Amino acid sequence: MKPGAQHRRTDFTLLEMLVTLVVVSLVAAIVSQALLQLGRIERLLAGGQLAGMAQSLRIEWVRGLIDGAVPGERQTPGRFAGTRRSLSGLSTEMPAFPESGAQRFELLFETDATGARTTLRLRQPDASDPSASARTLLEWEGREGGFRFLDARGQWHEQWPPALNAPRGLPVAVAVETGLAELPLLLAAPRVDAEPLPSRRVVEQL
After folding, report:
1. pTM over 0.85
2. Is 168 in a helix, a strand, or coil?
3. Secondary structure tally for the chain: helices H, strands E
4. Torsions phi, psi of 4, nearest 5?
5. How far is CA 196 from CA 19, 93, 200, in A?
6. What is the pLDDT of residues 55-96, one digit of tens each?
7. Largest Cα–Cα distance in the chain?
8. CA angle at residue 100 from 97 to 101, to 5 degrees?
9. What spatial distance separates the first Cα and last Cα of the chain, rounded to whole Å?
10. Among 178, 175, 200, which residue's Cα sits nearest to residue 190?
11. pLDDT tens for residues 119-134?
């Protein structure tokens, strides 16, 4: 066998090289598109996880705010008081970057004019920064939302104090009813009175 013939069998022809380049280009395009889609999916998943973490943080803000409530003096703006749609008083557990000592707060359920969306908002009447004086903590579709207050006898009330001449003090627990699918009922217990959370039987009476 001549050396030239063997050389011709081992080399690529121009057509073979062109076909190889086309196949490699197609494979590279497919792989790049797959990597691009994978990156988009990862970003979406990361965004969803961050949103879930932010929602959990806001829920804990609401719980901590009520857990840190103090009774306040009668006939003063700082006295703990609540209705079906609002709650106000003093708390030692303000969200974000709290100052030292108890601060005034107001929690308000607000539903838009169409009744399609409700928000739970935090206002700080004594805040020095007006832009930080009101913030939305939770929001959901619909009109649902309200507070209920548990007294030491195991009775739930839609306002606190339950009577005008009620003694100074805090409820045993506060139920925050929301329209959130993952948490329709949030329970908080002010720690000043050192009362435990209500039993399951008491909660079922809501």
Report:
1. no
2. coil
3. 3, 10
4. -65, -40
5. 77, 18, 12
6. 888 899 999 999 999 887 777 777 899 999 999 999 988 876
7. 117
8. 125
9. 98
10. 175
11. 999 988 765 555 556 7
